[in-house]
Amino acid sequence: MILSRIKQYLQQRGEASLADLATRFDTTPEAMRGMLETWIRKGRVQRRLASAACGSSCSQCDPAATEIYTWVAEGGADPVARPLPLPGRCK
């Protein structure tokens, strides 16, 4: 099932952008959001933006590239928020 493959992918990587997940699983970002929502409701995935301004100020980045999903470790500990590389035009 694709949900278990998403779980495995995020566990291995720790986090991934919506664009990366949609490409990896050959689906649209909208469909991937729906699948990720299952894990979010279960408290296993957290959604965040790469930075507060990216994706909203210049509008040049694909919003899916700045939407980050992080796997939450067993026991419900919050994931460590580490900076991700932003799309090339973002500073």
UniProtKB/TrEMBL annotation:
A Pfam family hit? FeoC
> InterPro entries attached here?
Tscrpt_reg_HTH_FeoC, WH-like_DNA-bd_sf, WH_DNA-bd_sf
Q: Which Gene3D superfamilies does the protein's record reference?
A: Winged helix-like DNA-binding domain superfamily/Winged helix DNA-binding domain
Residues covered by the Transcriptional regulator HTH-type FeoC domain: 2-70
Q: Classify the source by domain of life.
A: Bacteria
Record's protein name? Sugar metabolism transcriptional regulator
- Native organism: Sedimenticola thiotaurini
